[in-house]
């Protein structure tokens, strides 16, 4: 049925910490200068991408998953939700310090989520001196609660400097935050559950602070913190350089760097892809010019394809 790529129109989310980099960096038509998130490949009750080519033009990805799961994704489980969510985030200001539950905790604590939230970040761009929060220094739950009660965020939080091209794996249970001036591509489990720990006492236009979720946050935080180390692997196939960024229990993520021509096939039942630099001509059933900021899926029935151009992409598939 579907032997061509599935091109997707993204959804944009305005955030108190958002900016305009999704327009300046990716030429997206964003709703305002406080746009924080581009949901590029999304099939979630809070937002679903729209298919823009082929026989399912105009369908949401959620509807395509529900109605054509076998043909498009080789998936037989009728109750399973789409497993991954791909975002680009523009942190014009610091994001809240937060933590996410794992699958079991999400099922216990939330009624509307199919998954917990393990994620990873590829730093697309950032200002000089930018930092993320990744982890904490508490050794026990009591110590974590004491840091929070005292508001000793400098003592609690582990801050890490970043530069473009850096990659970070952020498993569920990790206290984290994206710092001001950073644009990331995020690959995550398909969940929108976030427990805020600290939000810098910010107030919105109505002089209201955003809700914190301290009880749930403490419950799901990994204590003591487990520092993550990258174990990249590298492969060159003709004109294509492939860096394996992570292979974990939930997804595999790769950085592709093409300078020339590549002909090949999918390494999994389907692939999710975003062009982050340059442009490439994709030839399968049809020919597509794909440029920076384009999001697409290589479905199950698309077996062989050709790439030609100079481009970089982040590609993933679920486990």
UniProtKB/TrEMBL annotation:
Gene3D superfamilies in the cross-refs: Jelly Rolls
Domain Mannose-6-phosphate isomerase cupin: 242-318
UniProt cross-references to Pfam families, sorted A to Z: MPI_cupin_dom, PMI_typeI_cat
Keywords: Isomerase, Metal-binding, Zinc
UniProt domain Phosphomannose isomerase type I catalytic: residue ranges: 5-114
UniProt GO MF annotations: mannose-6-phosphate isomerase activity
Cofactors that this protein relies on: Zn(2+)
Metal-binding among keywords: yes
EC assignment: 5.3.1.8
Catalytic function, reaction form: D-mannose 6-phosphate = D-fructose 6-phosphate
Top-level taxon in the UniProt lineage: Bacteria
Protein family membership: Belongs to the mannose-6-phosphate isomerase type 1 family.
Record-linked PANTHER family: FRUCTOKINASE, TRANSCRIPTIONAL REPRESSOR MPRA
Protein's UniProt name: Mannose-6-phosphate isomerase
Native source species: Halobacillus kuroshimensis
The organism's taxonomic lineage, starting at the top: Bacteria, Bacillati, Bacillota, Bacilli, Bacillales
């Amino acid at each position: 049925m579907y032997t061509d790529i599935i091109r997707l129109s993204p959804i944009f989310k305005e955030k108190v910490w958002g900016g305009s980099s999704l327009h300046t960096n990716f030429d997206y038509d964003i709703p305002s200068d406080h746009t924080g998130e581009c949901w590029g490949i999304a099939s979630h009750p809070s937002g679903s991408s729209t298919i823009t080519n082929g026989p399912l033009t105009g369908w949401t990805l959620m509807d395509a998953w529900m109605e054509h799961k076998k043909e498009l994704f080789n998936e037989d489980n009728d109750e399973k939700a789409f497993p991954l969510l791909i975002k680009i985030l523009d942190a014009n200001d610091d994001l809240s310090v937060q933590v996410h539950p794992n699958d079991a905790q999400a099922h216990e604590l939330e009624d509307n989520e199919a998954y917990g939230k393990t994620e990873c970040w590829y730093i697309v761009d950032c200002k000089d001196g930018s930092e993320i929060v990744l982890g904490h220094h508490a050794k026990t739950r009591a110590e974590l609660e004491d840091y929070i009660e005292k508001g000793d965020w400098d003592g609690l939080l582990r801050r890490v400097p970043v530069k473009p091209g850096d990659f970070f794996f952020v498993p569920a249970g990790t206290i984290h935050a994206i710092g001001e001036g950073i644009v990331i591509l995020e690959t995550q489990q398909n969940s929108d559950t976030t427990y805020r720990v600290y939000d810098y006492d910010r107030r919105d236009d109505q002089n209201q602070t955003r809700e914190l979720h301290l009880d749930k946050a403490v419950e799901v935080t990994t204590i003591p913190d487990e520092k993550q180390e990258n174990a990249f692997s590298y492969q060159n196939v003709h004109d294509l350089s492939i860096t394996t960024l992570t292979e974990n229990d939930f997804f595999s993520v790769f950085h592709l760097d093409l300078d020339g021509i590549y002909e090949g096939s999918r390494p999994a039942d389907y692939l999710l892809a975003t062009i982050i630099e340059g442009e490439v001509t994709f030839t399968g059933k049809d020919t597509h010019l794909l440029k920076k900021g384009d999001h697409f899926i290589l479905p199950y029935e698309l077996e062989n394809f050709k790439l030609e151009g100079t481009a970089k992409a982040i590609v993933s598939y679920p486990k």
